[in-house]
Write a structure and sequence with these properties.
Chains A, B: GO terms for molecular function: dihydronicotinamide riboside quinone reductase activity; metal ion binding; NAD(P)H dehydrogenase (quinone) activity. Two copies of one chain form a homodimer. The first copy, chain A, is α/β, with parallel strands linked by helices. The first copy, chain A, has one domain (4-225): 3-Layer(aba) Sandwich (Rossmann fold). The first copy, chain A, has helices at residues 17-31, 67-76, 82-93, 110-119, 152-157, 165-174, 194-209, 221-225, and strands at residues 4-9, 35-40, 96-102, 141-147, 179-180, 184-186. The first copy, chain A, has eight helices and six strands. At the A-B interface, helix 4, helix 6 and helix 8 of A face helix 4, helix 6 and helix 8 of B.
Amino acid sequence: PGKKVLIVYAHQEPKSFNGSLLKIAVEELTKQGCSVKVSDLYAMQFEPRATKNDIAGRLHNSEAFNYGVETWEAYKRGALSKDLVEEQKKVKEADLLIFQFPLFWFNMPAILKGWMDRVLVQGFAYDFSKAYDGGLLQGKLCLFSFTTGGSKEKYAIRGDIRYLLWPMQHGIMHFCGVKVLEPHICYAPENVSDEKRKEMLTAWTQRLKTLWKEEPIGCSPEWYFK
Amino acid sequence: PGKKVLIVYAHQEPKSFNGSLLKIAVEELTKQGCSVKVSDLYAMQFEPRATKNDIAGRLHNSEAFNYGVETWEAYKRGALSKDLVEEQKKVKEADLLIFQFPLFWFNMPAILKGWMDRVLVQGFAYDFSKAYDGGLLQGKLCLFSFTTGGSKEKYAIRGDIRYLLWPMQHGIMHFCGVKVLEPHICYAPENVSDEKRKEMLTAWTQRLKTLWKEEPIGCSPEWYFK
């Protein structure tokens, strides 16, 4: 109660299974007394490309464009583009970040990767001297909630699904100091029965009820590759 | 000689180190008698977002938009958007795909992830019955060539850099049947001496000279997590 949640949502279709998972999260968390914000990336036509347009006014070095340096400098002098400032404000306020998306190619869709690339700039989310447990977003939690195309068995044939979580959970969120909750994975909702789909939705509601009591995972290689 | 190469390049600045690596690859491979094409994603203002705009004409199901199904159907009836058809033609012709990019967040930049999401559609790059060694792009090679922000030592502290190659090399390219060459990694070119940078460029030229004699890696969990 009183907790702030930001859901970063990347699906084109409100009637999709991802849309249902989003709706459940908004309803359940609101019911608990949380304040919930949603960044609906496709609806916002969120820009995934990291370009000069992200810096208002003069460049630090207009001879050779370096996105990392330019956004760091722009952050310090308050010259990042408006859409980024808006997202950073939401991140800053949030106690919990939920990422809701369909897995595309063992990874998040490009529009969500673009959110990571553009919003989590140096100075705001990390500094090279302040990374991982000392990252600038420490004190926050995150949760990756996603659907897959293939079945659980298919993913298990060649390795473990945890392998593909390493770059997202460890390489991004842990790097920024955010603690990671167990991912929430719905396998192949398009290929199962209506009954099974309902069960998956119920399981998400149930999990959210006790979410604030969960312990974060130990985000080290052992969790992923043991 | 006579081989066809497609370089998919994701950097905003021609004067960057990535720009130099691209230039070297184009020059060296052309000198060898290869035919080289470059998809310069930022220069093309390549669209990374997977939306309805990728399908010309009527949707298969306009009640609830499903990107995977719609692009698969559109591929079969020749109704994918022109920019995708153009990229698919380049991929189809190529013997070797080189991906040249700066690592962003343990992964490729969103604009390149968008290329994967949108170009490699079902029916063209894979079918669920024809994946991995039987994938639809078999007979081709690929190589991920990228720069990092942090040093080799930094990446080694928490696990191995190979961990983050799993989703890209195995989850995308291997899934489509493409054989994977050893990645080419230039660590922290922004933080080393001019001399060291020159050495890195020379090493890339040297590698390209004998590239066609290389054996692909064994793209299984052992290579990544042994």
